[in-house]
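Batch manifest, entry 17 of 40.
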Amino acid sequence: MKTLQPLFDNNREWAARISREQPGFFEQLSKRQSPEYLWIGCSDSRVPASEIVNLPPGQVFVHRNIANVVVHTDPNCLSVIQYAVEVLKVKHIVVCGHYGCGGVNAALESASHGLMDNWLQHIRDVYRYHREQLDAIDDPEKRKDRLCELNVIEQVANVCNTSMVSDAWKSGQELHVHGWIYRLTDGLLHDLDVTVSG
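Output type: structure tokens
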């Protein structure tokens, strides 16, 4: 007996439904991918990239990690950006955080989280850069929300400063980097108005 059989059953139902609704969809999809969007988001299971923007498979190239962090020492994230920009020629890179992010909340705690603390240090750095603004917010939940937003803004800057993105702009490639945030309680995206286009 296969483990996790319900997931295989769900997959078969999903594939059958798509094939009924759009005959030939998977055959076309298997030939090539040409998404216009790279989504850099949080690994949180409640923030599924393609679903919250209601796009089918093949439309969004996705990279996810804890708290949607982009750092210049992460070869995984950098390789995804390079492939998306240089090979797929995406036109939009969306860095999408979300309110109620567990990574952001953990970064604010003084407790040790083991290995994860090395990753969370990037978010603690964002807090340090904006300490005066954040410490002026009395409500702890609003302070966390603002740190979620500031973290997205910082990661947008990090994406823009990668060699792949700056080289694309220098060559005249159309490429826009956006900072968005998602609210779990209503399912809505919000633009943080930090779009960079060159």
